[in-house]
Amino acid sequence: MSLPFPRTVSEGSTLAIVAPAGPFDDDAFQKGVLWLEQRYDLTFSSDIFSKSGYLAGSDDRRLCELAGAISNDKIDAILCARGGFGTTRILPGIELEAIQSANKMIVGFSDISALHARWAAAGVRSMHAPMVAALGNASAPIRKRWTECLEAPGETRVHQLERLNKSTENDASGRLCGGNLAVLCALNGTPFSPPLNDAILFIEDVGERPYRIDRMLTTLKQSGWFDQIRGLIIGAFTEGDPGPDHVSLDDVLSDHFADSAFPVLRGLSSGHIKENEPLVFGATARITGDTLKIA
Questions:
Q1: Residues with catalytic annotation?
Q2: Superfamily for 157-294?
Q3: What pLDDT, on the 0 to 100 scale, is given for residue 166?
Q4: What are phi and psi of 259, to 5 degrees?
């Protein structure tokens, strides 16, 4: 059910930093680098600081940088500098065979959800977690769990959450996948959607009003996404207050999932929040009552 373990990462491993999406704050990036350098050997190109509007340089630059990190046998894992926008633009150039052969974790979230889907399609684990530009200011507990997930992706991690569809008593297990809801919707109908059969799907988002969340969930529902999965985990949805209609996110989630046949848990502290809990995609997720176990 779970994907094979990725290439081993430990203290002293070589990690490549790439920017497949948007440009980043230089000071925040350097703070993250300083923390990471205390444990790992880092490598990144000076081109990573490129800026082309809302992109970290041209599509060719970003794709070549990522492809080089994948193929370089000296690199043990790949860290993304930041999300933003632009990752979906380079998906056609990312070869599944290269990801499979390298078997390296890629780390990031938000727009990097597009790469998580590609890694899942290749059958390789990935890590939904804070990126370099956020690690410099991350809390000590998050940094500790970040390191543990990267170096021990098979260890069991337990989260006590809230069951949304309380009338559904069935439990479930499946391969954990997902990421940012808006990015997942952007992948819908393309060759780059994540494999969903027998999966536990995780979703999160930021800056989306409830009606927009409703529209995205409706799109996925009508596309058959929720007919394939075994369970749903709802992470952090932030900066999306109700409008003048007073419809809340809780209203939207209840409308969509209160009567779902599969278990739905909410309250996982992962997403666009300061305490962004790292998750290993491709690991087995088990839902038992209100408990989520990932291993």
A1: 110, 204, 272
A2: LD-carboxypeptidase A C-terminal domain-like (3.50.30.60)
A3: 78
A4: -110, 20
